[in-house]
Specification:
This protein is α+β, with helices and mostly antiparallel strands and 257 residues long. Among the domains are: 58 residues, Helicase, Ruva Protein, domain 3 (Orthogonal Bundle); 93 residues, Chitinase A, domain 3. It is built from 10 helices and 6 strands. The protein has a 4-stranded antiparallel β-sheet with strand order 4-3-6-5. A two-stranded antiparallel ribbon has the order 1-2. A hairpin with a 2-residue loop joins strand 1 and strand 2. The protein is elongated. Keywords: Isomerase, Rotamase, Signal. It comes from Undibacterium rivi. Belongs to the PpiC/parvulin rotamase family.
């Protein structure tokens, strides 16, 4: 079968249309694939932007601008620059590692049983009581003992708390608000939970922060959040643990000289 020139032109145009449809634009002879728009829109959507014709038009122009600048950078020989090469390699590694971690999490999802176990563990550690405590923190044990003597003599705790090293609570008279014992370091928690309402520690409590005088104001039943309220945070934490364990296992298995 012999094609006439007009017929041949029609065939060539028909073949070219699908290829052109796959490209966003052609800049100085170099094609920008349309799939790159979808990738950038997907990335922007994950950051909260709404997919729309306006967004896609903006992305199209951005990709064209980038291609123009890329070509100029390559023409200037910057692609051969050692520092640029290093930065490109670091960026390539970051993208691949991120893709690897996303793939690992997808293939190793956190189970409901793991979430429940983590929730039960946190609830047990928090305990069933909350304590409303005040404290005064000083650097030296002798200073703490002097404050205790003043308290025994009738001085107001809130006034003496103004000299506390813990500036956050000092401005509030030493008030630490309601908290579970697990919130504090062990030595502090043990001293606090041993007090009765209205009592203060009559010997300084030593922690890594210094010496504390603790006063217990009140105790109440703990208000622990429901599983539904904290499930997203638990899942995120367990995913991070899985990823860290995976990374450590890979490094341990690797032959490093």
């Amino acid at each position: 079968m012999t094609f006439k020139p007009a017929h041949l032109l029609v065939v060539l145009l028909a073949a070219a249309v699908p290829a052109m449809a796959q490209n966003l634009a052609v800049v100085n002879g170099k094609a920008i694939p349309s799939s790159r728009v979808d990738a950038m829109v997907k990335q922007l959507a994950s950051q909260g932007q709404q997919d729309s014709p306006q967004l896609r038009a903006m992305v199209k122009q951005e990709l064209i601008n980038r291609e123009v600048l890329m070509q100029e950078a390559e023409k200037s020989g910057l692609a051969s620059n050692a520092e640029v090469k290093n930065q490109l390699e670091i960026a390539r590694q970051s993208l691949l590692i991120r893709a690897l971690m996303i793939d690992y999490v997808k293939k190793n999802p956190v189970s409901d049983a793991e979430v429940q176990a983590e929730y039960d563990k946190a609830k047990a550690q928090a305990g069933d009581k909350e304590y409303h405590a005040y404290h005064i923190l000083v650097e030296k044990e002798d200073d703490a003992k002097a404050i205790i003597l003043k308290l025994k003599a009738g001085a107001k705790f809130e006034e003496l708390a103004k000299q506390s090293k813990d500036t956050g609570s000092a401005a509030k008279g030493g008030d630490l608000d309601w908290a579970t014992p697990a919130t504090f370091v062990p030595a502090f928690s043990q001293a606090m939970t041993a007090l009765q309402k209205g009592q203060f520690t009559e010997t300084p409590v030593k922690t890594e922060f210094g010496f504390h005088i603790i006063k217990l104001d009140d105790i109440r039943t703990a208000k622990f959040p429901t599983l539904e309220e904290v499930k997203p945070q638990i899942v995120d934490g367990l995913q991070q643990q899985k990823v860290q364990a995976y990374q450590q296992a890979l490094v341990k298995k690797a032959k490093i000289q």
